[in-house]
Amino acid sequence: MTTTLDTRTRTHLDWLEAQAIYILREVAAECARPVLLFSGGKDSVVLLRLAEKAFRPGAFPFPLLHVDTGHNFDEVIAFRDARAAELGEQLIVRSVEDSIARGSVVLRRETDSRNAAQAVTLLEAIEEFGFDACIGGARRDEEKARAKERIFSFRDEFGQWDPKAQRPELWNLYNTQVHKGENMRVFPISNWTELDVWQYIARENLALPSLYYAHAREVVRRNGLLVPVTPLTPPAAGETPEVTTVRFRTVGDISCTCPVASTADSPAAIIAETAITDITERGATRMDDQTSEASMERRKKEGYF
Hints:
With 305 residues, this protein is α/β, with parallel strands linked by helices. The protein has 2 domains: 12-196 and 294-301, HUPs (Rossmann fold); 209-289, no CATH class. The protein contains 9 helices and 10 strands. The chain has helices at residues 12-30, 42-55, 74-87, 96-102, 118-129, 194-204, 267-274, 281-285, 296-301, and strands at 34-37, 64-68, 91-95, 133-135, 152-155, 183-186, 215-222, 225-228, 242-247, 260-261. Strands 3-2-1-4-6-5 form a 6-stranded mixed sheet, sandwiched between helices. It has a 4-stranded antiparallel sheet with strand order 8-7-9-10, with no helix packed on it.
């Protein structure tokens, strides 16, 4: 007797999960040397769970890679290392600090944001290991430049992205062919929203760095943002630090990542907040996304994630 799955019982998360698992398996089948970008952030945590569902009980068919700015939050780095060790998967770390020492990255000031500089270190890692596909957790709802991405986003031999040269993906058919030196950036959760991510975190009971949940932190108010007070981001002249309850919607380089005012201390509470917000997580929290000079599209054309 043949049984069939009643698709009416599947939730939207089931459909998103199934698509992402299909994409991960497609990468493993079609690409010679893929790698999964894992920072310890919520989107890459979701990617790890999807990879578990795609490939366990076997090992992942790719290593994990983190491009460390050297200015990441300590809690996130500790979580990254613990999660990779728990999974028993290879974690490769390449640092912007090393690129600075080599002279391939030059910053005007030590405290400058290193977000854009990650592109250089990533391209160096791709060349070092011969990666032909980098799996990332970017989503279309994050920022308008990312909305232009294909799921399999082609990069030329210089690691650059041309939004007008992307390949069609009709009927979920993906063209993974690349010449030597070229590569793909693959985004399995491209069609997910921030709300989907949090609903999946809640459903799967996924652990996250504590920064994602409400906590007391010293901040200053600057240009409509809550800037955390740290050695890298001290108060400017005339600014008065205050302690308030905040959480981070996204975690990145300390020099450009801000929290939001929130008392949400659980996935359920964050889901309730996210459902009614009308500002993207990057628009609400990233200082370097506030100016056209540091626009996401320009950075992506230069090799950014």
